[in-house]
Every structure is written in structure tokens, then in C-alpha cells.
Amino acid sequence: IRRALFAHGLCRALGGSNFNERHADMPSQPTTLMFRKLPRKMTGWDLLQEIEACIGAGNVDFLLVPWETGSDRNMGYAFVNCVSSAMASAAIQRMQGKLLQHAAVGRKHAKIVFAHVQGLAAHLELSMEGLQGESGGQSTEPLIFIHGRAVSLQEAMRSIAASTRPEAQRSPGERSDMPLGAHER
Known about the structure:
Layout: H1 2-7, E1 32-36, H2 44-55, E2 60-64, E3 77-82, H3 85-95, E4 111-114, H4 120-131, E5 143-146, E6 149-151, H5 153-164
């Protein structure tokens, strides 16, 4: 998990409410959010349900809720990449301070900021680096959605690599468009 934390840039001083102001190098249309103050028993699928209830299904293509090693508790935060900057902004607007349904104990309210690392491809790459050598189970791997279905991290990496290759290098029938949309569980 420690390696995953470094990979996602959490070992930097994140600071309080002015986090976004200190990251002038952030893209003008960010898509990746960091959810903080999550209920410690909340899974990625639980958080996805909460997000979909607020911004609709198919608007998230990456979601990672890291778990403590050897524990049944998450680390209290998550990274979520939305399919567009507009959806990321909508998620912040509709969910900031929202009482999360899985907050039976402690009454946790969502705190959402733009993540320092932005974009699906960057988070896929960091997830691959962070999970190499880790024993982590399914709960430490991100939820990823491509072409309307949940895919493994390895399959997502292959899809992203295929979408960035020039047309002449693609296999017959290999698609260059990579729509990320409504997902099936």
C-alpha cells in the first residue's frame, strides 16, 4: 500500500482547503477527484453507487479506494476519474459535504478536491506501478470501466495502449475510439 500511496502522490503534504490553489500546473479541465473522509468500511462499489446516484451512471471510468494491508478497513480516501471535466465539477457540486450512506458510524460527510494527478491514463499507469510486488487483493485494485463494462487493470492498459498507436499499427477490427461509458457490473 505504501508504494501505491507514493504513486498517487499522497505522501506529499496535501494540506487543507486551499489544496487546489497550490496546484497551478493542474489542467484547465481536470477530471480526477480525491474523495476524503470516507467511511472506513466503504468499498469502491459502495462509493460508485453514491456517485452514480448524484451524477448518473456511466460518468466514472476509474475509481480506487485503497485498503489498509491486512485489514478490513479502507484508508479513508479514494481517487475517482470522471469521463469529463463537467462531470467532475458536477460531482463536487452535488456531493461536497454530503452525508455518505455507508457512514453509519461517525457520520462522515464527503470532502472532495481535485487530485494532483489527473486523467485515466496517468492513474492506470500509477496503479500498475503501485501494485507491482504488492500482494493486495481485489479490494486494493481500482475499478475501471471501458466500453460500458468493468475491466481489469491489465485489460485497461492494453486498451489505452491500443488507442494511442497510429492507425497503421492497429490490428484489423481494433477500434481507435475508446468511449468510456455506462458500465455493467
